[in-house]
Amino acid sequence: MSFNSKPPTASGPAHSRSTQERLTQPTGRGWDLTPLLWICCAAILVFIVVNPVARLVLSSFEVIDGTGYTVDNYLAAFGRWRHVQALLNTLVMATGVSLLAALFAVPLAWATVRTDMPGRGFVRLGVLAAFITPPYLGAVGWILLAGPNAGWLNKIWMAASGSDSGILNIFSLSGLILIMAGNLYFFIFVFTSTALELISSEMEDAANMLGANAFRTAMKITLPLVYPSIIGGVIVVFLQSIALFGVPALIAIPARYPVVTTQLWQFFESPVRAEVAAAYALPLLGITLALLGLQRRLLAGRGYTTLAGKGGERRIVRLGLWRWPMFAYAIVVMALSVLMPLVVLVQASLSRAWGRGFTWSNLTLDNYHFVLFEHVQAQTAIVNSVVYGGTAAMASLALALCIAYMVKRNVMRGAQMLAFLCMTPFVIPGLVLAVGFYAAYTTPPFSLAGTAAIVILAFTTRLLPIAYQNSAAGIASIHPEMEEAVRILGGSRATAIRRVVAPLLKRPLVGAWILVFIPACQELSTAIFLTGPKTRVMSMVMLDFSEEGRLEQLSALGGVLLVITVAIVILGFRIVGRDFMLRRA
Amino acid sequence: MPTLRLKNLTRAYGQIRAVDNVDLDIRDGEFLSLLGPSGCGKTTTLRMIAGFIDPSGGTIEVDGRVLSSASGSVPPERRGMSMIFQSYAIWPNMTVAENVGFGLVLRKLPSAEIKQRVGQVLDVVQLGTLAHRYPAELSGGQQQRVALARAIVVQPSVLLLDEPLSNLDANLREEMRTEIRRLHEAFRITTVYVTHDQAEAMATSDRIAVMNRGRVEQVDAPYTIYARPRTRFVAGFIGRTNFIEGRRDRSQIRFDGFAVDAARLEGVDATASTITASVRPQSLSLSSERPADADGRIQIPGRIVERTFLGEHWDYVFAAASSNLRLKVAARPSDVFAVDTDTWLALDPKQLVVIQ
User: Fold this and answer.
1) Same fold, A82-352 and A365-585
2) Based on the domain organization, do B249 and B327 belong to the same domain?
3) A507-525: per-residue pLDDT in tens?
4) What's the predicted TM-score (pTM) here?
5) Which CATH number describes the domain made up of A365-585?
6) Total domains, chain B
7) What pLDDT score does B289 carry?
């Protein structure tokens, strides 16, 4: 049968009581482009997710410079005690980081969400600042603070005690753990405070009525209710810490504490043994998969239905005098994770020689001048970071948005599969992903080694999970009936998307773009094996400066990166905010 | 005449038939409600009429032209219908006037005419002064009026409403259902209205289709649905009722404690040996003395075993003295009987409705 004629009433007779004649009904075109969109998305995902992962696995079995398959790469990767030691070291380090991060984050989350501790807004801002400071910059800050003997804290100690050697050495396992935890505790903070915000005060009131004091209630009721979220956050921190490359490169190598990522890096020093690296990277993928499975299990098993409830008001716990010790603890965490490293970094970036201290004669803008106007590599890297990060953020968001739309609106069967592929890079550490891209696209016919294209593609893949989660949340926030209302009035799906979905997504998308752009701008581990001389990004130039001992210039470049990051955050809030103001007016 | 016709309409999800062989004819200009508990398939039916869901069997026709069938459907945007959604679905990025005028813009009317028509319809729904406000600034009732205006301004062939009042508070709901009926009187748009609230369906509809488990149990005018329910489900879902079982005993139907001539009851299956009848609590009356004038009514002595005062009426439970008959009786607030007082119950056999 044919559906192409006009709807029935278009030419129908006028109604008995309606004096107006009937309006002609719209005749929307009915081409359904969704299968085409699905195919395009699937093809892109095969190119940037499936193929690199497949090539990673395949190449781990390939004979180096030859044909055929072998397990030699695995023997080379795990045949040496040093390499196995690095794997064990990584697990020890990650455990330490997770525990310390939880120690930082959980009390702070509780205090900022549920208590009257002073400076809660400041603490929130500090946690965010610690997170948007790239971990390798934190590491540089701590080198300046607690480098053996020369570090600020050691110098203060020596001056105070008259001793001739410092007591702190950042080039150690504990240093490594401190720096990483100081950056990563953000995740546990966010997971925990979100969960705490959902718990009704009635839960606590019930315990109070039975005679429990505030502290007991917090320990016995409130915290256990959010355990799943805490554990979820701890697992994310654990996974992030085993995947980090920058901090180990700056700290673990001098500390002679090999970890997986530094070992992988060594496989890429000439002669490049990418196949061995691939074999060595796979356990990392395995650990990640196993832990995410565990996390899912833990969170699913404990059905704390209260977390889903919206009922009940939330009141703040009055800490009384205890709010001052709590505040002091928060300040200590702030100081360790962001304040102290940032102060010495800024000082170094403005100094002729950082060790000479805070004096007028030592003050200079030369370092900024150097990285912005003299050093060609630094200049190129700044542009590259912004361009690659911006492009990859756009690309990943565009792709994620299409797929999230298909999933959330049930447009097509099989969209869920694309969503799964979007989330896959979440389990692939950046360095491992880079190995996959290297295996897939540096050889003919692609031969993309060192090009901007491969860097942008790899960044796009890396950002897909965040982009997808944000897109899905954005689309889920728009009631499907908003679109159905357009369609029943005669608009096509495309009209609905253009006139309703897009305007309503503007705000969430600006937020999502910021969330994706910031890590992209700072990205190190994905870039490191893929960039060429002309495509290096800021983080890599900073590593070079560190090797050359140019900590002042490094700090200045880090300062530039932080200024860009903060500017984007503020600019984004302004745009989002102005839009919001306009709507209310 | 745009007659909307559902033929054997079926929608299955796996093994479950959300809508099961529904046959319905909705006449031109008629206001028909689909009434039923949640999960009865009424919203699925409505969304199939709108074209958002394809049927897995059967057809939807308008004026003999098939719009939906298992083999393909006209998309919603080409049906010339309009719909009011449970969430109102007012677009927050457009002003009231832009919301209402959107369907006209899609119909490519000249902007002067759009402006004029939007102004007219906003006056009809009493929102003329709010044309340039954004939806976030409107109350729930006002948003509901925007949704109404937006749906009727395009003069749809069929107007669909999906539980439009369920998000409003009780007073507003009453006001809006009057408003919806008023607009229907004014424009006579063929309307299908989905609700689980019987008062809403009663107040607005020309006919009500009571749905249960994907099937239509009865389609009738509101009074007939109430007074002459055909199935146990309809009798129980619309208002409250008493079910009593009776046995055929020659020319009589013998209930527990009393008997009625079979000839006085409508719809008695001549072959069935037992029947079920429904009698509304409102159709029963209580008195402390035996009424002198029986007037064809059956009188049963007994006593009050329970009572609840609900403000607008009393709910009594009456137990017959010489049988196991127990009936819910509704009485005016002034008819006060204490628990355990002896009373007489009067039952008019005409109020006994035989159900299937």
Assistant:
1) yes
2) yes
3) 778 878 888 888 898 899 8
4) 0.81
5) 1.10.3720.10
6) 2
7) 86
